[in-house]
Design brief:
DUF6788, rod-shaped, 2 helices, DUF6788 domain-containing protein, 110 residues, 24% strand, three-stranded antiparallel sheet
Amino acid sequence: MSHESPTPHPEIPAGIVEQLESLPSDTLNHVSRYAERLAEHRERERRLEVQQESDRVKKERPSDLPEDVPSRATITIKEINDNRYYYWQWREGDKVKSKYKGPMNKSGND
């Protein structure tokens, strides 16, 4: 172990460094444990926020929506040769994009 005083990380504000340097070792140990617990708590909170956002996006995205179709797509019905079909449809810039979803059943209800 070195006999030299440690060098503070450059991201630690100078005022905090000065306060820490004035504290006795027992208090520094308490501060150290608290800082680690606080950092772990904030990281858990951040992971929870990311998970909640991911869950929200999953809930908003229909389960049968293909990965290559944006969640803002809507279902449209196209009639081709007297048959009706469902398509996912969305806008990309000035173009309207479509992707086949499947046929409508004969009764017209799904």
